[in-house]
Amino acid sequence: MKEILRLEHIQKFYGNQGNLTKAISDISFSVNSGEFVGIMGASGSGKTTLLNCISTIDTVSAGHIYLDGADVTEIKEKELARFRRENLGFVFQDFNLLDTLTISENIALALTINKAPESQIAGKVQEMAQSLNIIDILDKYPYQVSGGQKQRCACARAIINKPKLILADEPTGALDSHSSQMLLGTMQSINEQLGATILMVTHDAFSASYARRILFLRDGKIFTEILKGGNSRKEFFEKILDVITMLGGGQSDVC
User: Fold this and answer.
1) How far is CA 189 from the centre of its chain?
2) pTM value?
3) Is residue 205 predicted with pLDDT exceeding 90?
4) Cα–Cα distance between 72 and 167 in angstroms, integer?
5) How are beta strands 70-71 and 19-32 bridged, if at all?
6) Which of 218, 209, 142 is nearest to 180 (CA)?
7) Please, is 80 exposed, middle or buried when counting C-beta atoms within 10 Å of its C-beta (0-12, 13-18, 19+)?
8) Cross-sheet strand order for the sheet of 3-16
9) What is the total count of domains within the chain?
10) DSSP per-residue codes, 188-232
């Protein structure tokens, strides 16, 4: 499979020499196109910092990040916004939908910003909404639909430009258990059926069990990784819990 993301000896420090905090000590890994990778670790393990560096929201102190062969760490500040628009999709915990736009307009926004031909926008929105089972709410506003439907709208917006990588930061954090399951099923579906490459930070072992590979961070380094392989999701869930126990805490301690 084609390698889409590669991190080489990433380090991230905050503060100055007198008061230096090391958020990421030394992290290297790669992600192939079409993978669904979860990132877990205790509070302060560096997982959110890692996601922020990959997304170019934050800069690394040392090391290199390559997305589809391009060195992300070398991109000039004025070019970063365009780079994100053209290459990355984001799924946030709080949806980030615009209340003054319909669901259809929210999904189309990503296409409009990227200057897609107007004649193609409606068809692409319909196609994406159909695949995520939200075709019947396209004319509604965010306040008129459920949390799960909002999150599927956010997923549609994230993938409609066919980004090289989708970054999800605690995507189920604001959802009840039923909506969480629906969203995770949606993410699994866009990964398996649409070939989307997903990197998801989560504190929750149940959410992580939908991924195919989990990287566990501790003290700014990769502690270990596990693969789903031929395991059922329930078996993978148990393996995740075993690693969390090894890391020294129950499920609620991993955040």
Assistant:
1) 14
2) 0.88
3) yes
4) 15
5) unpaired
6) 209
7) middle
8) 19-32, 3-16, 62-67, 70-71
9) 1
10) HHHHHTT---EEEE-S-HHHHTTSSEEEEEETTEEEEEEE-TT--
In a domain, 195, yes or no: yes
State how far the Cα of 79 lies from the Cα of 73, in Å rounded to an integer. 12
**53 domain-assigned:** no
253 C-beta neighbours (distance < 10 Å), count: 12
Pull the structure tokens for residue 80: 């970063």
Q: Any alpha helices (H) in 78-146, and if so which ranges? A: 80-87, 103-113, 118-131
In this structure, what CATH number is given to the domain that contains residue 32? 3.40.50.300
- Domain region containing 136: 3-44+60-70+87-211+219-238
CA 34 – CA 165 distance, rounded (Å): 9
In-domain check, residue 247:
no
Both tokens assigned to 135: 């075709």
What is the spatial distance between Cα 252 and Cα 205, in angstroms, rounded to a whole number?
A: 9
Quote the CA–CA distance of 37 and 80 in Å, as a whole number: 24
* Residue 98 belongs to a domain: yes
As to burial, measured by CB atoms within 10 angstroms (0-12 exposed, 13-18 middle, 19+ buried), residue 77 is: exposed
CB 155 within 8 A of CB 183: yes
Q: How far apart are CA 44 and CA 219, in angstroms?
A: 7
pLDDT of residue 102: 96
**Residues paired with 166 in a beta bridge:** 89, 198
User: In whole numbers, what is the pLDDT of the chain averaged over residues?
Assistant: 90
**pLDDT tens digits for range 125-162:** 999 898 888 999 999 999 999 888 888 898 899 889 88
Q: Are 58 and 12 in contact (CB under 8 A)?
A: yes
Q: What is the pLDDT of residues 64-121, one digit of tens each?
A: 999 999 999 999 989 998 899 889 998 877 778 899 999 999 999 888 888 888 889 9
Two tokens, residue 13? 């420090």
